[in-house]
């Protein structure tokens, strides 16, 4: 039953919960972390760890995507980012970081200028081919307004998964697209593709269920909210209570599973996940995998050299993200961020190891079972 509160005469609001508000409750049995599996499968593709990269130039180069894929996760290239606009993307990012160190607003302006360059589909195709040729799952993110225009070239380049992602994504986009064409009807669009589609973000049960009915293989919950980085709350008044949003999407997944007689749509949690404990809580709330930004930006392989920003920071008229330095000096390799060993007592390293240990302490040996773990809400 939803917890509704009156916020004024004739106006009610739902009480919701963040990941920080909940706690995992161990069962009467415990297991060895060696017996725990963190594997999951999205359509035909199996992943050994439930970790997906946020599709931002601050993280994902072809090399980063390859390394994350080698380690069992999924790296998503930003199909509308700098890798498809500039051949010297590392030099351009170095310029952005230099600007950020002097004046944050100057860095945003530079990002906007760099993203104003036209997309070079040949350059983008080369990045896709590099990931594909390495033998890992190849995924690219596009926005809803540009999905129709960019997808044919991406499929021709050899992508395995298409990610259609915006701050908020609905089953039918009402506004006309950037090319002046008709609105994107996701159900029709997805049905015509030969590759599985992950779509999002969604914030509530109804929108999640509607996206599942489009034929999406996965639904992203949230928009990568991170304190000090994403500013959709300040700019749009929209924020995401991730514990509630994940649980609502998981409920939509169960409803859709019954509705279709067995079609399972994966839920990917994107936002407010900074530590291994947050990762465990997101899975416990019902997520199949998590989309990580700042935790992966610590890695030496991350393109931002210790800096992170979301793709929305480069919006030409209404940027909704800031640049944040998450690491200075020597940075750990991605393998250490994910699998340890850790010398950090606060959960920023050995993320997957922390998840495994949490699952073992609670008595569960796989991710789907762990979604049934008991939870409490702090006072």
Automatic annotation (TrEMBL):
- What are the GO MF terms of this UniProt record? IMP dehydrogenase activity
Task: For this entry, list what GO says about its biological process.
Answer: GTP biosynthetic process
UniProt-listed SUPFAM superfamilies: Inosine monophosphate dehydrogenase (IMPDH)
Q: What is this protein called?
A: Uncharacterized protein
Task: State whether keyword Membrane applies.
Answer: no
The record's section on PANTHER family has: INOSINE-5'-MONOPHOSPHATE DEHYDROGENASE, INOSINE-5-MONOPHOSPHATE DEHYDROGENASE RELATED
**Organism (species):** Mycolicibacterium hassiacum (strain DSM 44199 / CIP 105218 / JCM 12690 / 3849)
Keyword line: NAD, Oxidoreductase
SMART domains listed in its UniProt record: IMPDH
Q: Which family does it belong to?
A: Belongs to the IMPDH/GMPR family.
- Which Pfam family, any one of them, does this sequence belong to? IMPDH
Where are the coiled-coil regions? none
């Amino acid at each position: 039953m939803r917890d509704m509160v009156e916020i004024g005469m004739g106006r009610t609001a739902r009480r919701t919960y963040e990941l920080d508000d909940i706690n995992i409750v161990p069962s009467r049995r415990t297991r060895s972390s060696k017996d725990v599996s963190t594997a999951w499968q999205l359509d035909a593709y199996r992943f050994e760890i439930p970790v997906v990269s946020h599709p931002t130039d601050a993280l994902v180069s072809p090399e980063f995507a390859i390394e994350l894929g080698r380690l069992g996760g999924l790296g998503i290239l930003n199909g509308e980012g700098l890798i498809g606009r500039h051949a010297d993307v590392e030099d351009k990012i170095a310029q952005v970081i230099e600007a950020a160190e002097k004046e944050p607003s100057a860095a945003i302006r530079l990002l906007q200028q760099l993203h104003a360059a036209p997309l070079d589909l040949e350059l983008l195709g080369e990045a896709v081919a590099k990931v594909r040729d390495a033998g890992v799952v190849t995924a690219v993110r596009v926005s809803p307004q540009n999905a129709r225009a960019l997808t044919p070239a991406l499929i021709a380049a050899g992508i395995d998964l298409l990610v259609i992602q915006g701050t908020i994504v609905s089953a039918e986009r009402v506004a006309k697209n950037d090319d002046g064409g008709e609105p994107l009807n996701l159900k029709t669009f997805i049905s015509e593709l030969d590759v599985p589609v992950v779509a999002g973000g969604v914030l509530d049960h109804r929108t999640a269920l509607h996206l599942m009915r489009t034929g999406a293989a996965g639904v992203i919950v949230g928009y990568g909210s991170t304190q000090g980085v994403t500013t959709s709350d300040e700019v749009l008044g929209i924020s995401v209570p991730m514990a509630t949003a994940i649980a609502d999407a998981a409920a939509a997944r169960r409803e859709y599973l019954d509705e279709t007689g067995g079609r399972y749509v994966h839920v990917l949690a994107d936002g407010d996940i900074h530590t291994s404990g947050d990762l465990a809580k997101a899975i416990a709330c019902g997520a199949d995998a998590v989309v990580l930004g700042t935790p992966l930006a610590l890695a030496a392989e991350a393109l931002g050299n210790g800096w992170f920003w979301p793709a929305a920071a480069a919006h030409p008229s209404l940027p909704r993200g800031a640049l944040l330095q998450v690491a200075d000096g020597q940075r750990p390799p991605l393998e250490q961020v994910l699998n340890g060993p850790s010398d950090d007592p606060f959960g920023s390293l050995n993320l997957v190891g922390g998840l495994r240990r949490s699952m073992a302490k609670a008595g569960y040996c796989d991710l789907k079972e762990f979604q049934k773990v008991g939870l409490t809400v702090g006072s």
